[in-house]
Amino acid sequence: MGLFRRRKRHAAWDRGSTREDIKHLQAFVDSRRGVEAYVEPVTMATETTVVLIAHDGEWTRRRVEGPAEAHDLAKHWAIPIYDAAVVGYPSRMREWTQRHKDERPSL
User: Fold this and answer.
1) 61: which of 7, 45, 87, 101 is 20 to 30 A away, CA to CA?
2) d(CA 32, CA 93)
3) End-to-end distance of the chain based on CA atoms, in angstroms?
């Protein structure tokens, strides 16, 4: 086996997407305006995820089966989709998170 041979990466502690994940994303799109999707790559802790960001910066993140599913969902919902590793996240997401940091549960 070659040293640089490509191998499929699997997240160490993750699960795949569920029907509830997709329902949550659908509800977010249905209840907010100006939603955009940002596909996040596989990491050591998670498989592919998609972040949906509304016009005001409110956001949610859920697992998807892969980039192809994220693109299919965005096409079905008629929303723009971006590669988060390439374009990053809009500043409105960070601003919304900062404004709502006291509402987030502490772990």
Assistant:
1) 7
2) 14
3) 42
pLDDT tens for residues 38-89?
A: 999 988 888 899 999 999 999 999 999 899 999 999 999 999 999 999 999 9
Domain count, the chain: 1
- The three-point CA angle 81-73-9 to 5° equals 80
Query: Do residues 40 and 53 lie in contact, with contact meaning Cβ atoms separated by under 8 Å?
Result: no
**CA 11 – CA 16 distance, rounded (Å):** 10
**Number of DSSP helices (H) and strands (E) in the chain, helices first:** 4, 4
- Give tens-digit pLDDT for 9-29: 444 445 566 788 999 999 999
Question: Do the domain assignments include residue 3?
Answer: no
CB 14 within 8 A of CB 46: yes
Q: Is residue 7 part of a domain?
A: no
Identify whether 14 is part of a domain.
Answer: no
pTM for the model: 0.80
